[in-house]
Design brief:
The protein has 315 residues and is α/β, with parallel strands linked by helices. It folds into two domains: 242 residues, Class I glutamine amidotransferase (GATase) domain (Rossmann fold), CATH 3.40.50; 33 residues, no CATH class. Helices cover 30% and strands 24% of the residues. The strands form two sheets. Strands 5-4-3-6-7-12-11-10-8-9 form a ten-stranded mixed sheet, with helices on both faces. A two-stranded parallel ribbon has the order 1-2. Pathway: Amino-acid biosynthesis; L-methionine biosynthesis via de novo pathway; O-acetyl-L-homoserine from L-homoserine: step 1/1.
Length: 315
């Protein structure tokens, strides 16, 4: 949350130079507060686990959030009880009647398929088109990031000779971007994927900014220049044992799977894994909620889609 200080205080210029969010009393007086409405399009087969992971990160903020869970009507989930879906999820047709401050589109374990081969691809395209006028800011995660970049900008994904699997160090490219406020210059984050989005394709695309990359894992963060789209190619929401469970499952199936890198102490899978990415995961979601959503979304949700974007630092 911002610090309110006098406009003429010398510390203001120093803090702003460090990308610390400060607010003048004049702007603070005009801050309107209400719950933020966040929709989650959950494409993961393990819906209950994904719900917990995302809500844990979203809940680490003083902002009050109202969450709507959305499922695809064009796909029949096989790993989640119908009673759970009926009790807690809306279809897109039901959610489409409303507007939201924020939207999260999750990953899905279908990245080796071409987008057009995914049974719910037309419905997901419809959601992404709908979000332009019904959502203020959207976070796309893992396969959801690849899907968003492909649908909105024509940026393709490329198959990898070897799966990117583990927790990798990433370098901040644009420390002035609000999404990266408070980040260390190098920070860890988990990946688990068979395909990649290439940095050169993002850098060559007008309206997109490359924010963080890894020498080993490649692109991690990108965003639209207006801050209304955030693309996260990794899995900051992963829990301590998520990669372990995936590794153990594949070993039990007899698959040729490498030990996830930089995850176990000394890369020894007989040792319990260590969590090194949690603080930056919380920070990423808090920054997105604060700077891309709360500080910019209109107080009247009905105005989304009918107004020009305001800059996050407008006083």
């Amino acid at each position: 949350m911002p610090v309110t200080i006098p406009s003429a205080l010398p510390a203001r210029r120093i803090l702003e130079g460090e990308n610390v969010f400060v607010m003048t009393p004049g702007r603070a007086e005009h801050q309107d507060i209400r719950p933020l409405h966040i929709a989650i399009v959950n494409l993961m087969p393990t819906k209950l686990a994904t719900e917990t992971q995302l809500l844990r990160l979203l809940g680490n903020t003083p902002l009050q959030l109202e969450i709507s869970l959305v499922r695809m009507a064009s796909h029949d989930p096989r790993n989640t009880a119908q009673a759970h879906l009926d009790a807690f999820y809306q279809t897109f047709d039901e959610a489409a009647e409303h507007k939201f401050d924020g939207l999260i589109i999750t990953g899905a374990p279908i990245e080796t398929l071409e987008f057009e081969q995914v049974d719910y691809w037309p419905e997901l395209q419809q959601i992404m088109d709908w979000s332009r006028d019904h959502v203020f800011s959207t976070m796309h995660v893992c396969w959801g990031a690849q899907a968003g970049l492909y649908h909105r900008y024509g940026i393709r994904k490329y198959p990898l000779a070897q799966k990117i699997f583990g927790v990798f160090p990433h370098r901040v490219l644009d420390p002035r971007n609000r999404v990266l406020s408070g980040f260390d210059e190098v920070f860890p984050a988990p990946h688990s994927r068979h395909t990649e989005t290439r940095a050169a394709d993002i850098e060559a695309t007008e309206g997109l900014d490359l924010l963080a990359v890894s020498p080993e894992a490649g692109v991690y963060l990108a965003a639209s220049s207006d801050g209304r789209e955030l693309y996260v190619t990794g899995h900051p929401e992963y829990e301590r044992d998520t990669l372990k469970l995936e590794y153990d499952r594949d070993v039990a199936r007899g698959l040729d799977i490498e030990v996830p890198r930089h995850y176990y102490p000394a890369d020894d899978p007989t040792q319990p894994p260590m969590v090194t990415w949690r603080s930056h995961a919380f920070l990423l979601y808090a920054n997105w909620l604060n700077y891309c959503v709360y500080q910019r979304t209109p107080f009247d949700l009905g105005a989304i889609g009918a107004m020009a974007s305001v800059t996050p630092d407008e006083d």
